Amino acid sequence: MKKIILFTTSLAMASGAYAGGYRVSIQGQQALGMGHAGVAMSDSAETVFFNPAAMTRLESEQQLTAGITFLSGETIFQNETTGATADTDNPIGTPLNVYFVSSPEDDNFAFGLGLYTPYGNSVEWPTDWSGSHLVNNIELKAIFVQPTLAYKFNDSFSVGFGPAFASGVVDFNRNLSTSLVDNQGNRSNVTISASNVDAWGYNLGFMITPSQDFSIGISYRSKITLEARGGEADFENIPSSLVTVFADTTFDADLILPAELTIGIAYNLSENTTIAVDINQTYWSEYESLDVQFNNGAGLSSNPRNWEDASIYRIGVQHQLNEDLTLRAGLYLDKTPIKEGYFAPETPRNDATGFTAGASFKLAENLDLDLSFLYITSNEFDAEYDHYNQSGTEVPFGGTYETTATSIGAGINYKF
Amino acid sequence: MNSKTITISKLLISSLAGLSLVGCAPEFDNPVDDSSNFDSGSADFSNYVSVGDSLTAGYADGALYKMGQENSFPNILATQLKQVGGGEFKQPLVNDNLGGLLFGGQENPDFGNRLVFNPQTQSPEPLLGMPTTEVYANGPLMGPFNNMGVPGAKSFHLASTDYGNPAGLSADPATANPYYVRFASSTSASVISDAAGQAPTFFTLWIGNNDVLSYATSGGVGEDQTGVTPITAAGPDFSDYGSNDITDPTAFGLVYGSFVNALTATGGKGVLINIPDVSSIPFFTTVPYNAVPLDETTATTLNAAYAEYNGGLAQMVTNGLLSQIEADQRSISFAAGQNAVVIEDEDLTDLSDFGLPSMRQATADDLIVLTASSKIGALADEEDPNSAWGVGVPLEDGDVLVASEQQAIATATAAYNATIQSFADNSDELALVDVAALMSQIKDGGFNYGTGAVNAGYVTGNAFSLDGVHPTARGYAIVANVVMAAIENEFGASLPRVDPNNYTAVLFK
């Protein structure tokens, strides 16, 4: 166990873009086993993320949960007209989750602390691939820390609230145009990078428990805008006549982490079996454009996105087989926020189906091992980005894409 | 923790790990790069020979340079054909990426280095440096060469037995072509004999562009030889042709037929490529007819200066020597804003005996050549501030393609294309590539190839190189794809396309 804990805490997090947009829904090993449904569940400290109000419903006075997930995905691309093909590299993302809850038995208050990585995007196309004017590679990470307080009004109603501190890192490379090269024929490109981009948001939850076997959860996560100011913009392979125009410089950009509303129920089908259903609504329509203001002759790079609000439907089942073993299974349908004609390959994702499974093993009186498994697939689909502007005309880029991703995660759950 | 749970957890972990590694990678139902999809059909690509002019050689940016040759449409095509039984494709590569030629160690301004675009001056400029490609150092290059594209060649040049003879380089006018002199198999070889002598199993023939293009790019200073070419038992006689003349379509048809016969004599199949409309290229579409910006004061001064000419025209009308319509067409008037350039037009009634030059202001129907771009507004006489080209002094005949010249070009081009089509239509062994249609599409709104698009915009459109006439590498890649489509259509082949995005467009300084 020591090994796992050390491993968990020493690894920096990174993620892959396999949930809607660049949201990575891997915030708890137990919830992930159940299709990442959990807004109405109150089994573990994962509630700090899923629904702060549920912290008041935990059985033990103090609980610590820590988990790590290894996430790997791949997107493939081809265009039948030009014969262009490309596969993304397979970077392993490691979303982390650490939660602690203290809910004194004779107190209506509960206190919690959470660390999690709900956003991430890591896509590496081959350098100078056919869509390199849109993206060569991108890595986006955001880590959240959330101190949380919950209050139980009575046995059937609780509220929880936590301010969330978000810190982001972004690293993005693309070619300057479909054609610009230096005099050796090397494609001109720019890398923008910024780190420690901080902002605050919040997580608000309500828990209604009409009966012992039935609960309703609502959680709202606020929008957070990460404002990168003065990040580094590194221009490479610029023709000599343009080096003053495209001198290395700084850039400003805003990255939207959209608000998210989740409503769900949990119902005990029997003493040992629980079913949970969640509906997430993510307010991606806030993401209208990826605007990067360069402080040199490159000026403003405006890349319309015009995403739409999107829903995810989740269902999960948990069955306690015996005292030592609990099994989980789940399914979710993730609707893409990307409209037709706006499919940019830096987030190469379409409607997807996620299949999940999980298990908890009792390792000791107070200690459980949680495992989770996830497989996401989107069938092959045709998509285009029609809004790349080149000398005043919009130049399309499109083809057929297919994405799959797999994750395996492990965590511990300690009650004391 | 008991041993049972350890066993269970081990089992679970290993099965999850296994699941995550096996069978989860995405895969297309019909991968475009699956070699089993490709097939040569009824064609045999083992010995492909390409025959033509600069467009076959890979000429771009005003020069024949190594990268351009490597991105010639035949070389792109041949590379793809290797996946369906195509053989080696040997090209007469020049030495460097400057592209200039040396004649006995001497540079020649007519064969200078390639152009690069300078965004600071917003103009193309030649690359600096001493070229290293000697035209005829110690005899020709060792062939045979699969790419028999010779920049500058007109249709009938391919049959000329003087065309590769170095002695003809210094004749006046020159009877040899330095690009062919470099690799002709002998001093008396012709391009077509060198090509046919390789017994091609497959060929592309794209000839006839220069039969109208040199007339066009010279602004129509040559003669239209249509109907006046002597045709003898030995064939058409081109000896009176000047370098900027339009080739007689009847004569074109005769020599073209002889090329098709020679290339198919050994049973090969081939592709015939037609001639694009020259008005679709940026060389004629970049400089607007109203390229002269003026303020009010200057306009007034100029109008005063032209008052005498305009008055003279009115006098001619009164005297019955000029129609009112032509007088209106010829009278010159400026206003604040963009103004039409003043041009010489030999189609106007000759009134030079009365001191009235044949000039008028251009209209949208006139095509100003790209090379006039830097001339307009420059002084014809450095001592005379009123001698700005296109304003105080008319642009010359060679700077403008007027309507009658455009018509002569269009008529000849249509006749060539009818000939080419009839050869293709009358043989199952020949496919037709309608490049004229492709170029029209590029000009009219652009050509979208799925992962990108090009248009005929100079520098910005990505299809045409800096000479405004020849495609960029990306443009040649698109041509190669269109040729592949025609091969598939005619011979039942299935060929792997290229991604034009992988080929360069305009090169900047």
Q: How many beta-strand runs of chain B?
A: 20
**Dominant shape of chain B:** globular
Mean pLDDT of chain B: 93
Tally of helical runs of chain A: 3
Q: In the residues of chain B, how many domains can be counted? A: 2
Mean pLDDT of chain A: 91
Write the CATH homologous superfamily of the largest domain in chain B. SGNH hydrolase
What Rg of chain B, in angstroms, do the CA atoms define? 28 Å
The CATH topology of the largest domain in chain B comes to Rossmann fold
Fold-level CATH name of chain A: Porin
Strand order of the largest sheet of chain B: 7-1-8-11-18
Helix count of chain B, per DSSP?
14
Order of helices and strands of chain A: HHHEEEEEEEEEEEEEEEEEEEE
Q: What would CATH call the class of the largest domain in chain B?
A: Alpha Beta
> Number of folding domains of chain A?
1
Please sum up the structure shown.
The complex is a heterodimer of chains A (416) and B (509). Chain A is mainly beta and 416 residues long.
Can you give a write-up of this model?
The complex is a heterodimer of chains A (416) and B (509). With 416 residues, chain A is mainly beta. Chain A has one domain (2-415): Beta Barrel (Porin), CATH 2.40.160. Chain A has three helices and 20 strands. Chain A has helices at 2-10, 29-33, 47-50, and strands at residues 62-78, 85-87, 92-93, 96-102, 109-124, 137-154, 157-175, 189-211, 214-221, 224-236, 249-257, 260-268, 273-282, 289-294, 300-304, 310-320, 325-334, 352-364, 367-390, 393-415. A 14-stranded antiparallel β-barrel of chain A has the order 1-4-5-6-7-8-9-12-13-16-17-18-19-20. In chain A, strand 1 and strand 2 (85-87) form a beta hairpin. Chain A starts with a helix and ends with a strand. Chain B is of the alpha/beta class. Helix content of chain B is 31%, strand content 12%. Chain B contains 14 helices and 20 strands. In chain B, the strands form eight sheets. In chain B, strands 7-1-8-11-18 form a five-stranded parallel beta sheet, with helices on both faces. The model of chain B has no long low-confidence stretch (mean pLDDT 93). At the A-B interface, strand 1, strand 18, strand 19 and strand 20 of A face helix 1 of B.
